[in-house]
Amino acid sequence: MLLFMRVVLAGVFWRSGQTKIAEGTWFTISDNAYALFESEYSGVPLPSHLAAVMATVSEHLFPVLLVFGLLTRFAALALLGMTMVIQIFVYPDAWWTEHSLWVAMQLALIVRGAGIFSLDALFARGRAS
Fold it and tell me: For residue 128, what pLDDT is reported?
């Protein structure tokens, strides 16, 4: 179940991050993404350029960590913070439709960790022996 939650949660944020990348590039933030942070996401209390970069990096880095089960609690906590920023400053009406489900998965991963099918568990077993 924890593996499934990690993959589902990673998929949500990864897909969002991919919408911010310029077509045909590996990791160039698109002009549309910057414009989105200047207009629709303007409520975020950070400079729009910085918010666009932070969101794009976060939506790529933390999902990768979740899929591999590496630093899972930290990655889930970081995405929880991002979710709350989105909830409070961008889409306050999305709590019951999406954000509450994301938060439930994030809290489960923060409390339980990555589970047995993860690099976290592998490294923990290595330290124990």
Answer: 82
Contact assessment for residue 121 and residue 73, using Cβ atoms and an 8 Å cutoff? no
What are φ and ψ of residue 118, in 5° steps? -160, 160
Q: Is 115 left (phi over 0), alpha (psi -120 to 50) or beta?
A: left
Mean pLDDT, consecutive 10-residue stretches, the chain (129 aa), reads: 98 97 95 96 96 98 98 98 97 96 98 97 89
Task: Annotate the chain with DSSP letters as a single string.
Answer: -HHHHHHHHHHHHHHHHHTTBPTT-SSPBPHHHHHHHHTTTTTSSS-HHHHHHHHHHHHHHHHHHHHHTSSHHHHHHHHHHHHHHIIIII-GGGIIIIIHHHHHHHHHHHHH-S-SSSHHHHHHHHHH-
Query: Within 10 Å of residue 95's Cβ, how many Cβ atoms?
Result: 12
